[in-house]
Write a structure and sequence with these properties.
By secondary structure, this protein is an alpha+beta fold. Helix content is about 40%, strand content about 20%. It has 2 domains: about 10-325, 2-Layer Sandwich (BirA Bifunctional Protein, domain 2); about 340-380, no CATH class. The protein is built from 12 helices and 13 strands. Strands 1-5-6-11-10-9-7-8 form an 8-stranded mixed sheet, with helices on both faces. The chain has a 3-stranded antiparallel sheet with strand order 2-4-3, with no helix packed on it. The longest helix has 19 residues, at about 15-35. It starts with 16 loop residues before the first helix and ends in a 5-residue tail after the last helix. The relative contact order is 0.13. The model has no long low-confidence stretch (mean pLDDT about 90).
C-alpha cells in the first residue's frame, strides 16, 4: 500500500478522539443557545447547481469553487457558503410565508483556494438566518445571539465589529464613482490596505472632498462616538440613513446589555456582494480571522423568486476551537468510558459482565466490553 494513501489532500484533515469530543461540545452548546431563540433546524445538500453560487448572486468566485458534472452534464459545486443554499430553500418551501422564518444549520463548506495561509479548504460552519424581518430589532437579535453563543462556550475576550454597506455605497454614489472604481475600492478598503486605497483614488482622479472622506472611511474604526462624525462627513440621504440605522441598532443592543462587546467599523466591507445593510464580524485572541461573519441581505432571495428581507450569520467552528485552545479555555468533556473485561470462553462471566454493562449504559455511563486479554493490552500489562 502506498504511504500517500494514508495522508489527506492539502487543506483538509482528520479529527478524532478528544479533539472531536471538544468539537461536538461546542456544536451542541451553540445549538442549544440558538434553539433558545426559537430557531429551527434545516439541512441542505452538500452540493448544489453551479448557478446557486453564480457571479450575479455575488458569492464565492468561480475559480475558488470545487466544480464537477453529473451524468446529465449539469455543473455542480460543493457549497462554499451556506446563505445562498438557505435562500434557495426558502424560495422553494416558504414562498408564500409572510411571518418571520428562523432557521439554523450546521455542516461543512468547501473553498478551493491555493493561498491557504494556514486556512483549511473544508471547515465546519454553524449559522442562523432570519427571513421576513427587516427591522433593526432583527439585526440586534443576530448580534446578541453571536455574543451569547461565544460567551456560552467560554470565550470572554472578543469584540463584534459592525459596519454598514449602504454607507459606503451612498458615498461612492455621491462621489460619482463608476462601478469598476467602486469594486476596486471595495477590495482595497475591505483588505484594510490604506496605501492601496490612496493610490487607487489618485489614479482614478477622485476629487476632493471625496478623496479625503474615502481615505478616512478606509481608516475608520472605533466606537459609538465615531458615528456622528461619519454622518457629518456625508450629504447623501443613503449614507445618512445608514448611520441613523446604526444609531438605532446601538440603542437596541444596549437593551440586550451587549454594548461592551461591540464597536463600529465603517471601513468593513465583505467579499460577498449580496450584503445590503449591516455587516458584522466577531474577533477574538489567538485567531487571525473572524470567528463569526454575518449581515443583512435584503435582495438575495429575489434570485430565487421570493422578495423578502433577511439577516444572518455563520460561526466558523474550526476557528473557534483554535481560539479556545490558544486561550487555554477548558471545555468540559464527558467522563472517560468505563471498561469491563470478561474471560474468553467463560459464558457465565460474559453474561455477568454484559448485564453489568447494560445496567451502567441505562444510567448514561459509557461502557466498553472487552476480552480480558484486550483489557490487559489497554492497561499496559501486555506489550
Amino acid at each position: 500500500m502506498s504511504k500517500k494513501l494514508l495522508h489527506t489532500p492539502e487543506g483538509v484533515r482528520d479529527i478524532y478522539g478528544r479533539e472531536y469530543a471538544r468539537k461536538l461540545y461546542v456544536e451542541n452548546k451553540v445549538h442549544e443557545i440558538i434553539s433558545s431563540y426559537g430557531y429551527e433546524d434545516i439541512q441542505t445538500p452538500t452540493f448544489e447547481f453551479f448557478d446557486v453560487f453564480s457571479k450575479e448572486i455575488g458569492t464565492t468566485p468561480s475559480k475558488e469553487l470545487y466544480k464537477f458534472f453529473d451524468k446529465e452534464g449539469n455543473t455542480l459545486v460543493l457549497r462554499p457558503d451556506f446563505t445562498p443554499s438557505i435562500a434557495r430553500c426558502v424560495g422553494k418551501y416558504f414562498m408564500e410565508e409572510k411571518a418571520p422564518i428562523r432557521l439554523n444549520y450546521i455542516g461543512n463548506t468547501f473553498t478551493n483556494t491555493s493561498s491557504l495561509q494556514g486556512k483549511l479548504k473544508e471547515v465546519t460552519q454553524m449559522g442562523v438566518e432570519l427571513i421576513n424581518d427587516s427591522g433593526v430589532e432583527a439585526d440586534a437579535e443576530m448580534i446578541s445571539l453571536v455574543i451569547e453563543s461565544l460567551k456560552g462556550i467560554g470565550l470572554t475576550s472578543f469584540q463584534v465589529s459592525i459596519g454598514e454597506v449602504e454607507y459606503f455605497k451612498g458615498l461612492c454614489e455621491e462621489a460619482g464613482l463608476d462601478e469598476e472604481t467602486e469594486l476596486d475600492l471595495r477590495a482595497c478598503i475591505s483588505g484594510k490596505n490604506y496605501f492601496a486605497t490612496e493610490e487607487l483614488l489618485s489614479e482614478r482622479g477622485v476629487a476632493e472632498p471625496y478623496r479625503s472622506i474615502l481615505l478616512k472611511v478606509a481608516d475608520m474604526f472605533g466606537n459609538m462616538f465615531s458615528l456622528p462624525e461619519a454622518k457629518a462627513m456625508v450629504k447623501n440621504p443613503r449614507s445618512q440613513a445608514a448611520i441613523e440605522r446604526l444609531e438605532r441598532l446601538y440603542e437596541v443592543l444596549k437593551l440586550y446589555g451587549a454594548e461592551s462587546y461591540i464597536s463600529f467599523d465603517l471601513g468593513m466591507l465583505s467579499k460577498y456582494k449580496y450584503y445590503t445593510g449591516i455587516i458584522f464580524k466577531a474577533y477574538t485572541y489567538g485567531v487571525g480571522n473572524a470567528v463569526v461573519t454575518g449581515g443583512r441581505y435584503n435582495s438575495l432571495l429575489s434570485y430565487f423568486g421570493k422578495e423578502a428581507p433577511a439577516v444572518g450569520f455563520v460561526l466558523v467552528i474550526d476557528d473557534i476551537l483554535e481560539a479556545l485552545s490558544r486561550q487555554k479555555i477548558e471545555i468540559p468533556l464527558p467522563d472517560k468510558k468505563k471498561q469491563l473485561t470478561y474471560k474468553q470462553g467463560d459464558m457465565a462471566d460474559f453474561t455477568k459482565k454484559l448485564a453489568e454493562a447494560r445496567a451502567l449504559r441505562s444510567q448514561g455511563i459509557a461502557v466498553e466490553l472487552l476480552l480480558e486479554e484486550a483489557g490487559d493490552c489497554l492497561s499496559g500489562k501486555v506489550k
